[in-house]
User: Fold these one by one.
Assistant:
Number 1:
Amino acid sequence: MKLRAAPAACPALWRSLPCPQAELRLDLVLSSGQTFRWRESSPGCWTGVLAGRVWTLTQAGERLWYTVYGEEEEAAERHRPTTPVPKRRRLQQPPASGRSPEHLHNADAIAESPGSPGAETDRILRDYFQLDVGLPALYQAWGAADPHFRKVAADFPGVRVLRQDPVECLLSFICTSNNHVARITAMIERLCRAFGRRLCHLDSQPFHTFPTPQALAGAKAEAQLRALGFGYRAKFVSQSARAIAEELGTEGLCGLRAVPYAEARRVLCSLPGVGTKVADCVCLMALDKAEAVPVDTHVWQIAQQCYGAAPGARSLTARVHKEIGDFFRGLWGPYAGWAQAVLFCVDLRKGREPASSGGQPRGGRGRAGGKAGPS
C-alpha cells in the first residue's frame, strides 16, 4: 500500500501513548502469527482493523503513535439517493521520527473526560496490547530461570501477547491448520471482504470488519468459504460460527475469560475444528489465560531440541501437548504463554527468507501445526 503525503493539518490527527520499544515492538508482534489483520502499509507503519475501526500505528522514540479512520464519508454516501463510487481515502502521513512533540497532538498533555473519543481509542490500544503488563520485568524473570531464553531473547525485545476479540481469534485460528502466516492472512482477508461490513478505502485498499458468527452460520456459508479456498476448514469455520451464534453465544465465549484455564480449554475443544493447539491459542490471545502454552510442530521442536522436553515422543498427541505445556509452566511461571510467544517469534523470524524475496515466511512457518483437520 503506497503511503501518500497528507494535508498540512494531518499531524493533529495523530495521538500517542508512552510506550518504549522494550515494552512493544510493532514489527515483531504484528507479524508473528498472533493476528492476521495488520499489514506494513509503509516502512514502520502498520494498518489494520481493530474494534470495528481502521487504524495506522507506528513507533517513534519512546511513543506509540496512532491515527484512526472514521466511517463518516461512507455513512454520508449511504444516505444519498443514488449509489456512488466508493471514496478512496489516503493514508495519513506518520509523524517523523525526529519531530518535536510540540508539533503533534500529544494525548498525554490533554486533560480529557473518560468518555471522550481520544480517551476511548487510547483505552482500546492499551487493552489490545495489554500495556498494563510490564514486559521488561517478565523478560528478566524468564531469563533468570532459563539460560536459553536469556540468550535468544536479547535481540527480540518487546514481544508481547495481544488481547484479541474472542470470536475473531477463534475463527481465525481454525484456519491455521497445515498453513502458514502469508496464506492465513490472505484467507482472512477474503473472509472479511465476503462476509464483513465495509469500513472504508485507504488508497485502493478496502477494509472490512471481521464477520459476525451469524454472518458465517448461514446455510450457504460453507459453500462460499470453499469457493474462497478454505478447503476442509470451511466446514469447521461455519459450524463453529453456528455453535457460537445458536448455542454458546458471543457473550458466552467472552465469558470464558472469567473461568479457569482448564474449563475454558474444555469448552473450546467441544467446538468443531478446535483441538488442543487452537484452544490454547485462543485461551492465551483472547481469553486472558497467560499460562496457556500453544504447542504446534515448531514449539514441539523447540521443546525437544533446546530443552529435552517430551523425550522419545514421535507425534504431537494431546498427552505430549500437555507434557510440554506443563514443562514450560514449571520453567517460566504464570506467564509461560507469553515467554513461549517470544521463542515462537524468534523461530519465525529466523525462518524468514532474505528481504529480497519479500520477507514472507517459508512454507510451514507460522501458527501452522501438525496433521490435517482440527489441531
Number 2:
Amino acid sequence: MKKIWISFICFFTITTVLTGCEPLLVLDPKGPQGQVQAKDIMLSIWIMSVILIVVYVILAYMLFKFRASKQSADYKPPYIKGSTMVEIICVGIPVLIVIFLSIVSVQSNNKVESTPAEYKDKEPLIIYAATSNWKWHFSYPAENIETVNYLYIPVDRPIEFKLYSYGPITSFWIPQLGGQKYAMSDMVNTLHLGANTPGEYMGRNASFSGKGFAENTFRVEAVHQEEFHSWVKDIKNTSPEITEEKFDTLLKPGHVGEASFNGTHLTFYPAPDSEHGEH
C-alpha cells in the first residue's frame, strides 16, 4: 500500500510541475508553415495515443482473463488454431495508418516547400542566411544591409531564405515559424517561411557543429511592414559599411554579439552558384 501511495504522489507531482511549463515552441506556431507542421505533429500524437490506449487495454484484459490458475499436474492446454481475422486486423490496421500518414506527409511537404498559399500574391523578401563557426550572417540584397545574429522580418509577407555555410554543415531553424533545413558550403538551399504574428522568436543552429554549437543562436523580430521599412532606413543611416577585412574577421571561429552593417558581403563573397530546394 505504501508503494502505491508513493507512486501516486510522484505521478501527481510530475503532472503538477508539467502543467506550469510553457508550451513547446513547435506547438505554438506563429506562421503558416509552422501551423502546418504543428498540425501534423498533433495528428501523429493523437494516432499514437489511440494505439497505445488500445494496446494497454488489450494487455490488461489478456493478463486478467488468462492469468495463472491452479491446475492438476497432468493438465494440458487445448490446441487453439490461429485466427485469420486477427492476423488481418494486426497487419491491416498498421498498413492503413502508414498509408494515411504518408499521404498527409506528402501534402504537408508540398505546402512547406513552397510560398505559403495566403502570401502567393505578395513579393517575397529574400534573405541570404550564411553561417560560420559559430554565428549567423543575414544579407538583405534588395535592401543592401546585413546583420549578424539577429533578423528583422515583416509579418504577412513571404520570406525566402537562401541558406549556405562558410564552415561545417549547420541547420537553420526557427521553431515557431517552420521546420529546419541544412546550410552547406557548396550549395544554396531555399527555405520558405512567413510570420503572421508580430513578436520576438528564437532561432538556432539545430545541427551539432563543434564546441560552440550550443550558443549558435539568433534572434528574430517579426514586425509590421512600416516598422520594417523604418528599421532598414535606420540601419542604412547609422551602421558602418561591411568590408572584406571585417567579414574575414567575423568568419573566424568564435562567438560575437549582434551587429548591423551597410552593404552585404555578397558583393565580395557571393553565395555558391549551385542551388537546391526550389519547387
Number 3:
Amino acid sequence: MDTVGHRMKPFVTIVLVICIYLPGSDSIGMYGKSVRFPAKTANSFVRLHAPDFPSLTAFTVCFRAASEETHPYSLFSYATSISDNELLIWQESKTELWLEFHDQDTKFDLPEMNALLRHICVTWESQEGEITVWVNGRRSVRKFGGKGRVVKGPGAFILGQEQDSVGGGFDINQSFAGEISDVHMWDHVLQPNDIKTVSQGCLRYGGNIIDWGSTHYTFQGIVAIGGNKDCPL
C-alpha cells in the first residue's frame, strides 16, 4: 500500500470511570452532600467512622436538619460499650430538643422543627457543666449539667437511629425521617462568632473529631446521599 502523503491517525484511548457507592462500603467525606432518610425504618442509618478518643471534657456538635415527623427521633447518637447514650441529641417533639449523656437529660424549647433546613449546634464543657444550643446562629438560654464529667471513648457515631447497643439495637419508633447534612464535631466549645460563621454556610474545613468533608462513613438501609444545592461555597 502506498502510504506516501498519508499520515497515520493517532490511536486514542478513552477510559470511562464509573464510581458506584454500595450500602456498607466505606466512603470518604460528604462535602456538599446531604443524607436523606425518606421514611422511618428499623435498619436505615449512616455510621461516621471518626477517630477514637479516650475522653472529652468539652465538645461542639453542629449539623443541619429538617424533618416533618412528630414522633420522637434521634438526630445524633454516640454510644460506647459502657453507655448506649453516652451522647444523644434527641428531638422529643417538634419544639423540644434534648441533650442526654451520663443518664442526665437537658431540655430546650426551640422553634418548631419543620421541612425547612435549620442549623443546630450544641456545646458543653465539663468545668462548669454549661450547655448551650444554637439555632441558625442564635443562642438559647444557657443550662447546666454534667459538671465534672467526661464523654468517654471509643464508641460509634450514628445518624438516623438511636443506639441501644454500640452500632445497633435500633427501634423504628425512634428513627429519623428527613434530611441531615454538614455534621461536624469539635473537642472544644466554639466561640460565638465561630458558631455564627459555621451557621452561615458549608465549611471547607470542619471539626477535628467529625469533619463532614473528610470523615469516612458507611450506610445501610433506605438512605439517599446526594448533592446539597443549598451549599453556597
Number 4:
Amino acid sequence: MRTVRLDCVALAVRDEGSGPPVVLVHGFPELAYSWRHVQPTLAAAGFRVLAPDMRGYGGSSCPEEPAAYGIEELTGDLVGLLDAHGYQRAVFVGHDWGATVVWQLALLHPDRVAGVCALSVPFAPRARRLPLEIWRERLADRFFYIRHFQDEGVADAELAKDPERTMRLVLGGLTVEALLGPDDGRGYLDRLRETHLPSWLTETDLAHYAEAFARTGFSGPLNWYRAIDRNWAATPHLAGAGVAAPCLFLAGADDPALAVMPHEGQERHLGDLRGSVLLPGAGHWIQQERPAEVTEVILGLLRSLDPWWT
C-alpha cells in the first residue's frame, strides 16, 4: 500500500502491474484487501491495477462530517486518482457500494470512464423523489438496513463494539432478513446468521479486516448511506440519464442483495451492456468467494475494449 494525496483526502492504494489502467473499488464494509486474489491476476494479464481504500476506510482519510461522503466527493476521489497517475480514462470495477459509485462516475464524468464492471449492485436510474421518503412509505412496517443506518451513532456503536465479531457475521452470515426483514426491534447484527467462517475467508483475512475497523470505526462507511438523500438532491441533471460506456454486470446467483436490488430491467438504461452474468451458488462477497471466475469475467470485458483505452 502507498499513499496518494488528493486535494481534500489521502487514499491508501494497492498498485500492481503496468499497462492500461483498471481501478478496483470496494464496497461496504470492505477494503482494497477484498481484491487480494483478483488484482495480481489482472496485473499479470497486462494491466496497471489500482485498488484504493476508499475514503472512510482503512488507511485512507476518514473525515468526520457526513457531508464529506456525497457521491460527488466519492466519484471525485476516483477522478483525482486518475489525475495523480496521469491517466485520462480507466476501466472501473466496483463491488457493492463500489458498484454504485462507478455507475455514478460513468454519469458524472463519462469522459474519464472507458468501461464499467459492476459486481452485485445493478444500475438504478435516479428516483423520482427522495429515496428515504420512498422507503419509509413502502417499508413502513419492515426493517430495512439502509434506514437503520441513518441515525448517527446507533449503527456506529453496534458495529464497532466488537469489530472481529462484526466482520465474522457480515462476511459469513449475510441473509435477506439482515437487509430487509420483519420490524421486530432487532438491530442489524442480530439479524446475521452465526456460522463458521466460509471456506474462502481465513482467520488471517478476518484479522486484517477486524484490525482495520478497530482503528477507524464504522462511521465513515455508514456516512455513505447517510448521504443518499443529499446525493439525490445534488443530481437533478441525472434524471433519465443512462450509462453509455461499455459495461458488464456480475453477481452471485445466491446474493441476498439481489432480493433488494433486482437486476432485471437495468438493460433499458445501459447503452452498451456486454453481459449480465450470475455465478451459480455464489453469494454477495463474490470477488473473495469466487475470484478466478470473477477475474475471467472482468478480463473478458477488458479484452473486448479494442483498441485499449490508453
